[in-house]
Every structure is written in structure tokens, then in C-alpha cells.
Design a protein that fits this description.
- The chain is built from 16 helices and no strands.
- Helix 3 runs antiparallel to helix 4, helix 12 packs antiparallel against helix 13 and helix 12 runs antiparallel to helix 14.
Length: 393
Amino acid sequence: MNVSPYLAVLRLPRVPGFMLLMLVARVPATAAGMTVTMHVLLGLDRGYGAAGLVGAVSTIGIALGSPLMGHLVDRRGLRAMLTLSMVTEGVFWFVAPLLSYEVLLITAFVAGITTMPVMSMGRQILTALVPDDRRRTALAMDSMAVEIAFMAGPALGVALTTQASSRTAMWSIGVAMVVLGGVMWVVNPPVRSEGDSGERVPRREWLDGRLLGVLISAGGATFVLSGVEVAVVASMRGLGLTAWTGALIVVMCVASLVGGFVYGGLNRVPPLWVLMGTMGLLAIPIGLFDWSPWWLALALVPTNFLCAPTITATGEAITKYAPASARGVAMGLQGSAFTLGVAAGAPTTGFVIDHSSPAWGFAVAGVGAMAIAAGTVLLSRKAPTRAGSEQIA
């Protein structure tokens, strides 16, 4: 494997330090959902349905707010967005442990709208720091960092809640988000490349069928991934090995990390729709191996190997199709698409599993991704092609 593209990215000014900062910033962000869930279950003594409802309204708030926060970055700069987010997140995480369930439900939605978009913000800044010919590698590294954050964050949230208390865990997340936001405010990394004029482009000129296809692909990727995760939980529960579910999630993350590493070093890559469609195709037969945790772990590797590459490909396409002056909105829309994909994939797969078996859950998640891939091809081919651009299909 050729590591020279990665070394070239790491030699760029400000890039290594920024990547490390964003990795640290994403850990409390990925711990937030699990920590709130644990607080509702243990701190408020409510059921799983109540905990899931808080997560759902927070997810809706984040999906609505992500492009709005990106728009704020585009128009007022990074510091304006960080200031708003630090204030609202600081207040929310300080008072949330003290609220009743009903009030927490409302404030979780409101706070979700102004949540610091650490995922899309990281991709936007990284795009500004690296030249065009290094973006694929840089975005692949970013996707791998996200996988690491998702392995560490939820586990940290659970550990703080069980070893201390849910209040301590929530206050810790609030302090971490405010401190890290303050560091970002001081550093103030660029959100546009030096050569970008920042000239505003009418939305109808860039938010076309091709970009919509990319956004739908982003949602499709998380649709199949969240569906597979739910099916894994159901399979392990059926085997009486629920305690080992985390080990299989780690296998999925490691497979994605390896896939992202390989993808980031390639000069020529498959189209986005091929990556996502193949993810779906490889997910369909996973259920045939759910009779053994070892075989199930092996069966999960191929589809998850394409996870980070697919996520990277959506980010790379957005940097091509969205002008620099609207990249914050576009990256925010990508974040919303990821969020909505999870919100659709998990309950859809869960419904199928409730009425059949985990094996059918894997199949439905895969078929859904393949159908979405086919739809993005149609959108891409119907969209007019601007000079110098390539279709995603």
C-alpha cells in the first residue's frame, strides 16, 4: 500500500494539528447521544421508548440545524457560529441533568439546532487547508478519524455514567464542548482556500440533481450502516450473546478504517453510486451467517470495508459541486443527510426484524441502499453538466 499520499497531506501546514484537534472534539460529540440515553434510563428512571424519543427529537433538531449553522459560517464566519454554539451547548449541558423528562424533551430539540457541527465543520476546514489533488486522501483520513471517535465516544459516555453518574457525564460533555469550541475560536482555521473568491452563487445554480444525488447517497450510506447495526444487535441477542455485540461493532469500525486507508491512497476510484450500491449488495447475504458470531463477524467485513470510502466520496463530490461561498451549507446538508439516513435505516430495519428475523433486516438494509444508488444515477444523468465537472454516475 502506497502511504506517500498520506505523508504528503501530513506535511501540509496546520493540517496535522487540526486533524488531532478535530479528533478530540468529536469524541464528546459522539458520546452525547449515548450519555443522554443513559441519563433518561438511569437518572430519570424512564424506559427505552422514552430514551429513544429524546434521541429522536435531538436528531431532528441536528438535521434541521446543520445546514443553518453551515450558512452562518458561510455568511458570518466560523467564530460567529462557534460563539452561538458554545453559549447554547454550555447552557444545555449544564441544566439538562436538572430538568424533568418533559422539559428535557423540548430543550434537546432546541439545543440540537445549534449543536456544534463538528463533523461537517471539520470537513469544510480540511477542504480549505489542502489542495484539490490531496482532498481525497485528506477526507479519507477524516473519515477514519470519525470511526475512531465513534469507537471511543459512546464507550466513554457509558463509563462516565456507570462509574460516576449521568449528571457528571453530561456536565463533562458540556465542559468539553465549550473548551474545545473556545480552542477552535482562538485558532480560527480557514473555511475557504486562499484562492477562493467567496463570491456568492445563486443556490439554484449549484443545488442541482447531481448534488441532490450526492446528498441522497450520503443518506443511503448511513441507512444501510444503521440498519446493519440494528440487525447485528438482534442477531447477537438471538444467540444469547448480547454482551459481545460491542466486539462486532469494533470489527465493523476496523473494517471501515482499513477501507478508508486503501481508498485514500488510490488515484482512480469507482463512482459514488457503485460504492454505495456495492455496500448494499454485500449487506444482503450477511444474515445467512448469523448462526455463529465468528462467521457473522467475517460477513460484516466486506460491506463495512466500503463505509469510509463511500462517506469520503460524498464529501469529495460536494467539494466539487458546491461553490466555496456555499460550502458550509452544502456540508451541513451532507450532515443532515447522514442524520436522516440513520433515522430512517434503524427503525425500518427494526420493524422488519420485529415481524420476521434479523436475517431479513440485513437484506432490507442492503436492498434499500441499492435502490437509493439506482435513484442517484437517474438524478445525476438528468442534471445538466457544468463545464469542468463530472457526473457522480
